[in-house]
User: What shape does this take?
Amino acid sequence: MQSIRVFAPASVANVSCGYDVLGFAVHQPGDEVVISLNRSGIVSLDLIEGDEGRLPTEPEKNTVSAVVINYLKHIGSKQGAGIKLYKKMPFGSGLGSSSASAVGGLVAINELMGNPLSRMQLLPFAMEGERLACGNAHADNVAPALLGGMVLIRSYDPLDVITLPVPAGLSCALVYPHVEIPTMAARQIIKTSIPMANAIRQWGNVGGMVAGLYTNDLDLIGRSMEDLIVEPVRKMLIPHFTEMRKMALENGALGFGISGSGPTVFALCSNRVISGNVTAALEKKLKEFGVGSTCYVSEINREGASVLEKI
Assistant: This one.
């Protein structure tokens, strides 16, 4: 095997109550990465398609190639590799675009090298890719994209990541209003201190979310999707957020929130039919307000990044 094509999925970070500690993967959208081994002794970034010229082309500065370089150094290999990145996700959407690139590159090169590292061992490399992309090595996008399903980052130092069970049929409606919110800017507006009462309530919601996942209690999951810390600030950046929340819940969603730093919003639903109804309703409402959008419906992706082709 000399070449490989890998799909790396989008992900929903924070999941309302779990800022920087909860995230889950979806089946669409996502990026594709193709890596071909060669005898050059260097890692080259041969093609970027779908980025409209916005991404850096220097291998050390682009997330997908930088993580591959660091990975090969770590395993003590001077293997040459050419990388092609096919961006199929919107930038600044809150869907983990940079995470997908990093994860795709790591899974691809690890497969080509015979999988010397487990996916959990790949996680720190992916996190450093996030640091390169947005200045913060958070894991709530890269961990689900790598591992699949719903994940909890219990600790960052030392890193402790737990995969959580997902109730059968749990589905997600994703609506991306066509406005862009850079991750760095969205992080800068977050308050650095919060009232103790809000912190206590937020901790309870995170515990409720985890308990609901383990007990298949969909109502508890919905009740726990309350964010008193980040959403009150970030929702002001998202057009018609309050109206969309009301409409999503009226159409049967369990809960509603901001995907990552936004502007994409998401609704967890008990099944795909309800997710479809929610998506259609929100798309229609945004259109009435003169706001274009892109919508996706997906069950929770339990696999994470996947190999599409080996050559």
Observations:
- Residues 3-165+301-310 form a domain with the Ribosomal Protein S5; domain 2 fold (CATH 3.30.230.10).
- The radius of gyration is 19 Å.
- The chain is about 35% helix and 25% strand.
